[in-house]
Design a protein that fits this description.
Layout (H helix, E strand, L loop, with lengths): L2 H6 L9 H18 L2 H14 L4 H16 L2 H12 L11
Length: 96
């Protein structure tokens, strides 16, 4: 399967030329580090790891419980406030 076909089918998010890949990757990583709450990234990584070793029903229950807990936290409130106020988020445990 060619990369362009994988993109068209939704198997990959984007296909880039080789000379664009490194700059895109650094930009994407920078956005993750500044625009996504560290607690959200940690929860996502944990969920992905746990989902490798469990069944679908357990994964869905875990995701629902994790989502409810995250939405009750300060990072969620800050993310919503930043979006509403059209400003960059300032998560408590973000690097300054």
């Amino acid at each position: 399967m060619l990369a362009e076909e994988a993109e068209r089918l939704g198997l990959v998010n984007r296909v880039l030329a080789p000379d664009e890949l490194l700059s895109f990757t650094y930009d994407y990583a920078g956005r993750l580090a500044t625009e996504i709450a560290p607690s959200s990234l940690a929860a996502t990584k944990l969920q992905l790891y746990r989902d490798l070793h469990g069944d679908v029903a357990s994964s869905v229950r875990d995701a629902s419980a994790r989502m409810a807990a995250m939405m009750a936290g300060v990072d969620f409130a800050e993310g919503v406030a930043a979006l509403t106020e059209r400003r960059p988020p300032a998560f408590p445990d973000s690097p300054a």
